[in-house]
Amino acid sequence: MAKHLYIKTFGCQMNERDSEIIEQLLARSDYVLVSEPQTADLILINTCSIRDKAEQKVYSLLGQLAPLKKENPQLKIGVIGCVAQQEGDKICKRAPYVDMIVGTQQIYRIPSMLDRLADGQTTREIATDLEGSFIIPAFQKLLRGKPPSPAPAEFRKFVTIMQGCNNYCSYCVVPSTRGREISRPVVDIVEEVRILIEQGIKEITLLGQNVNSYGQTNAVDEHPVSFADLLYWVAEIPGLERLRFTTSNPKDLSEKLINCFAEIDILCPHFHLPVQSGSNHILQKMDRKYTRESYLEKVAALREIRPDIALATDIIVGFPGESDEDFTQTMDLLETVRFHGSFSFKYSDRPNTRSADFADKVPETVKKERLKQFQDRQDQISLEQNEKYVGTVQKVMVESGGDGKAKGRTGTNHIVHFPCSDDVHPGNTVDVQITRAGKHSLQGEKA
Ligand code: SAH
Ligand code: SF4
Ligand code: F3S
Questions:
Q1: Pairing mode, if any, of strands 182-183 and 162-163?
Q2: Greater confidence, 1 or 341?
Q3: What's the pTM value of the predicted model, to 2 decimals?
C-alpha cells in the first residue's frame, strides 16, 4: 500500500532539486507525495542555514509537528539539508521525537535508513558525514532504469552539475554545510538532461553554488571541461528549447562564458550575477576576489555581446564595517548597472564563518534602513526597466493557465500574464505583445 510522504523545502534551488531526488528515490519504496503533513507516514524537513535564525525556524516547525507524532506513533520525522548538516545530533536533544538527521551528502541513504527504522533495527538514524565525493549514488540509482516521468504539467527542471563550494566568502555557511566543491561528470549530466527531454522537459537550469568554476574540481572526468564547454554540450542535445544556469561568482566569469551568450541561441538572455556590495573595501572583507571595477567590466562585456540580457544580483547590506560611504557605493553601483531585479538581505552572523568574529557590526536599525533604501530604489529601477518591454513582442513559455488566462516566462525571466484560450498548455511557447509593466511582472496579449 502506498505510504504518504510530506516534504517541506526551505532555501535554494539546490535544496529543491535534492527534495525532488529524494521524492523520486522514495517513489521506488511506494511513497507518494502529499501536500499536507496531517496524513503523512514520513515528514522530511529540508532545511537552509544561509541567514538569520535558521535553526530556530527549524525548531519551531518541529514543535508544530510534534503533536502529529503523538496521534500517529508510526509517523517518522526527518530533518535533512544544511541545518541538519550543521547541527547534527544536537537537533535530537532539542527535539527527541526526530527519527532521522540526514546531512547534505547522505540523502541517497534515506531509503535504507527508513528500512532500518521500520524493521526496528534502530530507533534513530543520523548520517552527517561530508564524504568529499559526489553524491553520485543518488543519481546513479535514478538513472538506472527510468526515473518516474515528471508530472504532465512539468516542462522545466533543475539539473545539479556540482556540489559544495570552495570559495569561503567570509560570511557564508555553504562551504561548511555542503562541503568541498566537486563537479559532476559530463556524461552523467548529459544523460540526465537527455532523459528529461525524452520525458517532455523543454527548459533546463544547470545548478551549482558557483557554476562558473565547473570542471576545476573534477575528480572523475579524465579530461574535465569548463563550464562554457558544458553549456555547448548540453545545448546540442536535441529537443532542448531553453537553457539557463545559476549561480555564478563573478570572479570566475570567463570571456568564453560571456561568448556563449552570443553563440548559443537557446541560452536565455538572463544572468544572475551576485555582486554583494559596490564597495571594494567590503568586497575585500567578504573575500569575494573581484573588484567593483572588474564586475562592471564584465557587465559591460555581457551587454555588448547580448544587448537584450537582463541582469539580476544579490546584495548584502550592513556587512561588518560597512560605512555610509561603503553603502553609497552599493547604491551607486545599482544606478550604474540598473539591475532588472535583485535579492537583497541584511547581513547576519552564521556559524563557522570568519565574519561572525569581525568587529564593527552594523546596528540592526541601520541595516534595516539601508535595506529599505536599496529595495525602494531597486523597485523603481525594475519598473523602469520593465517599461521598456511595453510594445515589444516576447516569446513566452507558458507555465500555467485556465479560465481564459495564462502565466508564462520570457527568456529574460520576466513573468508575463496574458489572456488566452484554454488550448494553450504548460511548455507551449506563445508570442505575446507586452501591454503593461509592473515592477515584478509584465502583462500582454497574444500577438
Ligand atoms: N553562491 C552564490 C550565493 C549563494 S547564497 C554566490 O556566490 O553568489 C545566496 C545569497 O545569500 C548570497 O548571494 C548572499 O547575498 C546571501 N547571504 C549569504 N550569506 C549571508 C549572510 N551571512 N548574511 C546575509 N546574507 C547572506
Ligand atoms: Fe557562499 Fe561564496 Fe560559495 Fe557563494 S561562492 S556559496 S557566497 S562561499
Ligand atoms: Fe541554504 Fe544550503 Fe542552499 S544553506 S541556500 S540550502 S546550500
A1: antiparallel
A2: 341
A3: 0.94
